[in-house]
Amino acid sequence: MSYARVLCVGLVGVTGHLVEVEADLAPGLPGLVISGLPDTALHEARDRVRAAVVNSGQRWPNRRITLNLLPATLPKFGSAFDVAIAVALLGGSGELPLAPLDGVVILGELGLDGTVRPVRGVLPMVAAAARAGVQRVIVPVANTAEAAVVPGLRVRGVDTLHRLVAFVRDGAPLIEPPRHVPPPAASGPDLAEVAGQGLGRRALEVAAAGGHHLALIGPPGAGKTMLAERLPSILPALDDAAALEVTALHSIAGLLPADGGLLRRPPFQAPHHTATIPSIVGGGAGLARPGAISLAHRGVLFLDEAPEFSRAALEALRQPLEHGRVLLARSRGGAEYPAQAQLVLAANPCPCANPAGDERCECPPQARRRYLSRLSGPLLDRIDLQVRLLPMRAAELMAPDAHESSAMVAARVVAARAAAASRWSALGRRLNAEVPGTYLRRPPWQLPASDTADLRARLDSGSLSARGFDRVIRLAWTIADLDGRARPDRHDVGEAIQLRTGEGT
């Protein structure tokens, strides 16, 4: 037999595609050619695979070898094709009977000694195989726990090419995935630890309930970072679909924990202010990798000292914030990643950052304007809540612990989100922040003119943009959901204006 075919999976962005690895061995000058849009790592596979085959005690076919990766129009990236290439070569040379591998997807990178090494992105690859109707997959032993997350698949692991050859020839058993034992719930930061700042706590609760973006502006020590770090603690746990999305993104980035289970807690990303554009929105040579905003998908992206970030990096967030996805175009094809993260900005009101606040600020008005103008108007217009925190007072700091815990606030958030999901289910939306403004301005969801008179006046005077108008309405719906009312009233709209503009804070 001079032809063999083995199944593998290629990954473009977060989307997997079933790939057929074809091997044709013909008489002629010995050599190996790989076609099907391989990248540099795949071109180098010829040397890795040859050494692995020989060092595993197998005979390398001394013939002209042509490898083709179908579909040939799909770009192929990475080293996850190594094991499939080796098996296809041995099958085409007649060394291996490939009947036991019929309909089986094979993933893994080969070391020169024949060991099978783990690869990134196994979870989305295996999920793509399941969608294509595949029922059995063979992955590196270090990736078995991750692959076993996908239901309906029989997952087996290999640690060496020799073990896989023994399975095909003699039926020797492969390695079963370990039994997943959920780790104990980690005790993270709790909202009860935040002293004072009733307005900040209220803004955090509204942001969590409606999925709104949040900006916290205040002097050092006011609690901006403490509040932001506790936002994930009041967000609901991820459901199965969201957990699979988040886990797949972390798998591609190589950031999954050792247990390989689904990530159920909303992720939290807090890049340093020196972070580059590719590290925030994604990028890199070859296949673009997900950035911090995609790794924060279904969770929180926190930019502390936001005015210190480069203006270009901040402006790059505008499109993902608006559409919930980021498309990274490259010469060999684009990669699209989900980016539905809640953005939280923290900033001092001025360069001197006097802990006493505006009362003792030493900065001239021009310097204050220049400092906060690093957060551009178009970016801030996409931030639903813009809250100014006051300096901490001794009475607040020394008060006995009487603040609500994260668990208590999270219960209200869950109830508010359930109300919003029930209301917007016909639109395919789950959060108030996701509802298009056109729906909120039309019956039956349009609010009475008497309740929105102040809001309309601000729009007509130019102090509020059309986008800001819609975001205030969304905030009002979230406030009503938190307070258990079916519709917002005039007071809800007033509080939403205050949380949106920072007036009176």
List keywords for this structure.
single chain; 505 residues; alpha/beta; Ribosomal Protein S5, domain 2; Rossmann fold; 4-stranded mixed β-sheet; 21 helices; elongated; Ribsml_uS5_D2-typ_fold_subgr; Mg_chelatse_chII-like_cat_dom; nucleotide-binding; ATP binding
Q: Helix- and strand-based class?
A: alpha/beta
**Count of DSSP helices?**
21
Largest sheet: 5 strands, parallel
Number of domains: 2
Q: Please give the alpha-carbon distance between the first and last residues.
A: 78 Å
Radius of gyration: 27 Å
Structure write-up:
Belongs to the Mg-chelatase subunits D/I family. ComM subfamily. This protein has a 5-stranded parallel sheet. A 4-stranded mixed sheet has the order 1-2-4-3. It has a 3-stranded parallel sheet with strand order 5-8-9, sandwiched between helices. It is elongated, with a radius of gyration of 27 Å. The chain is an alpha/beta fold. Helix 17 crosses helix 20. The chain has 21 helices and 18 strands. The protein folds into 2 domains: 168 residues, Ribosomal Protein S5, domain 2; 204 residues, P-loop containing nucleotide triphosphate hydrolases (Rossmann fold, 3-Layer(aba) Sandwich). The model has no long low-confidence stretch (mean pLDDT 90).
